[in-house]
Specification:
With 285 residues, this protein is an alpha/beta fold. Helix content is 41%, strand content 16%.
């Protein structure tokens, strides 16, 4: 058997089409559009490309898009002042500071400074806390994208065994909570997990986000499992995931490719969160 592909661009396009419909209606009602501000420090090529894609996507959907490209030596004080100005800008509904940050800037201080109602990355402690208790919040974009992909294929998580490889605050922990909210039984694995391969073989849904190229091989995958590969790694002149795609696709029922899998979903969820922030601001939920 060979797995069906869950194609990120296909799922993202379906969501963006709905965003475009909502945008037309909201602009007619308010004569305003959602605003997304992104702050990029320095010249990291991956971060520059990612921010460029965010800017392109938001503009294509008719959003007000602002990108502050500032020097890597910018002080934490100046960065926090910029965030404060955006917090008070009525035309901005979402604020994102591109990570990682330079060593001289304290990441937690920056994320805490973003107004909760504009935290469209879902990293503010209040949004994280609300996610834990299942209350209304902005969901971190990559985990949200993973869940939308499962929804797109009509996968019912109730009672399923979900295994997550990776426990980061950006992907592993929040996606575990989202799976729990859908009544899956969830196991989070990490570098100290005993017999990782055996744990993975129990997964009906396997989500891998560790940043190690092709670490999970086909032999680790339960026949018929759904595999979501969040990793993206450069090996020579190729981009590969954290899952060995060729062997995994022979065991899985569905699998996300790399590239062309989760990546496009992250930006789409950022746009969706910004739209949601705009709706809340104008009491249009």
């Amino acid at each position: 058997m060979s797995a069906k592909l869950i194609k990120g661009p296909e799922v993202a396009t379906a969501i963006r089409e709905q965003i475009a419909i909502d945008m037309a209606s909201l602009k007619e009602k308010t004569d305003k559009v959602p605003g997304l501000a992104v702050i990029l420090l320095g010249e990291d090529p991956a971060s520059k490309a990612y921010v460029g894609n965010k800017e392109k996507t938001s503009k294509a959907l008719g959003f007000h898009s602002v990108v502050h490209r500032i020097p890597v030596e910018t002080t934490q004080e100046d960065l926090l002042k910029m965030i404060d100005d955006l917090n008070n800008d009525e035309d901005i509904h979402g604020i994102l500071v591109q990570l990682p940050l330079p060593d001289h800037i304290h990441e937690k201080a920056v994320l805490d400074a973003i107004a909760v109602e504009k935290d469209v990355d879902g990293f503010h402690p209040i949004n994280v806390g609300n996610l834990v208790i299942g209350d209304d919040c902005f969901i971190p974009c990559t985990p949200h994208g993973c869940m939308k992909m499962l929804e797109y294929i009509g996968y019912d998580l109730k009672g399923k065994n979900a295994v997550i490889v990776g426990r980061s605050n950006i992907v592993g922990k929040p996606v575990a909570l989202l799976l729990l909210h859908q009544n899956a039984t969830v196991t989070i694995c990490h570098s100290h997990t005993a017999d990782l391969a055996a744990v993975c073989r129990e997964a009906d849904v396997l989500i891998v986000a560790v940043g190690r190229a092709e670490m999970v091989i086909g032999d680790w995958i339960k026949p018929g499992a759904v595999v979501i590969d969040v990793g993206i790694n450069r090996v020579g002149d190729k981009l590969v995931g954290d899952v060995h795609f060729e062997s995994a696709k022979e065991k899985a029922s569905y699998i996300t490719p790399v590239p062309g899998g989760v990546g496009p979903m992250t930006i789409t969820m950022l746009i969706l969160n910004t739209l949601e922030s705009f709706k809340r601001k104008h009491n249009l939920k």
